[in-house]
Design a protein that fits this description.
alpha/beta; Arc Repressor Mutant, subunit A; D-Maltodextrin-Binding Protein, domain 2; 3 domains; 5-stranded mixed β-sheet; LysR_HTH_N; DNA-binding transcriptional LysR family regulator; DNA-binding transcription factor activity; transcription regulation
Length: 309
């Protein structure tokens, strides 16, 4: 029995949820996949799947085998991919993920600067507001704005991302400028919903030296921050927006910062990546490059994300 092959097919069935889809992805017949799984079950002396005409589910032994085998097979796939895609330490691909709002503002300048040093390294960028499983998606490095991405990842806070309360001059001329956070409760505002949960994100305010989370009624809420920025630019309401997204608007006067004394800066720009014992040299070099850019004066990521003025 080719144990690597049958384990690969077993894992493929679990991930695909059916023998047929696993067979299509493997380029073989469903009968061949089913035979491989039966061979594995016979060798182990246990059933791995509960099978019915409509449903396929793992037995307790099957779930345990998947839990133990899947990480090892991913490492094997990564090892083969690294050898296949890298002729040397200065060649190969780095895969990144980030929210769409960071793509052009942060990732593009970083990629440009890094490729000036290592032109043989190419990038594949996946932009999504949803959380991406880096290991499952074979992503090398992720970027997020907010809080630290999680305990099972290596995360580095690159810089602060100030949140700026702002509105258009035309809006303020029509509705008046709020003097206190309580005034926000009677004025049209915009809001942001988390894409994964649909929950409204409360505004973060500094009040008497304390960080306060305040629910602000929204006349228009969005699960895409770019759209919320467009709504504030259109004069629909007051918004609390990441400064890096409205930096040019604030400099030009298209948007005016308000309630400055209550603005908070608890949000950060994070770079994160999986724990790996044998990280490809190109990925390590990119991580070090980004870390250095966050410290350097001329390449400071604080300038890339922008600060309210």
């Amino acid at each position: 029995m080719d144990k690597a092959r049958v384990l690969t097919l077993f894992i493929g069935v679990v991930r695909a949820g059916s023998f047929h889809r696993a067979a299509v992805e493997a380029g073989i017949t469903p009968q061949a996949v089913s035979k491989a799984v039966r061979t594995l079950e016979a060798d182990l002396g246990v059933r791995l799947f509960h099978r019915t005409t409509r449903k396929l589910s793992l037995t307790a032994e099957g779930a345990r085998l998947f839990e133990l085998a899947a990480p090892g097979m991913r490492q094997l796939d990564e090892a083969l991919d690294q050898i296949r895609s890298s002729k040397s330490e200065d060649d190969g691909m780095v895969r990144l993920t980030a929210p769409p709002s960071l793509g052009g503002r942060v990732l593009v300048p970083l990629i440009r600067g890094f490729r000036e040093l290592y032109p043989g390294i190419v990038f594949d960028v996946v932009l999504s507001d949803l959380h991406t499983d880096l290991v499952e998606a074979r992503i090398d490095v992720g970027f997020r704005v907010g809080t630290s991405p999680g305990q099972n990842l290596v995360a580095r806070r690159l810089c602060d991302v100030p949140l700026t309360i702002c509105a258009t001059p035309g809006y303020l001329a029509r509705h008046g400028e709020p003097a206190t956070p309580d005034d926000l409760l009677r004025l049209p505002c915009t809001g942001f919903r988390r894409p994964a949960t649909g929950r409204m994100v409360p505004w973060e305010l500094q009040i008497d030296g304390n960080l306060v989370y305040q629910e602000v009624p929204a006349v228009a809420s969005f699960n895409d921050v770019e759209s919320e920025v467009d709504a504030v630019r259109a004069g629909i309401g007051i918004g609390q927006l990441p400064a890096y997204m409205i930096h040019d608007d604030l400099l030009s006067g298209r948007l005016r910062p308000i309630l400055r004394r209550y603005s908070a800066s608890t949000v950060g720009l994070y770079m994160y990546f999986p724990h790996r014992n044998q990280m490809p040299a190109r990925v390590r070099r990119f991580i070090d490059f980004v870390a250095e850019a966050s410290r350097g004066a001329e390449q400071s990521l604080s300038r890339l994300v922008g600060r309210a003025r």
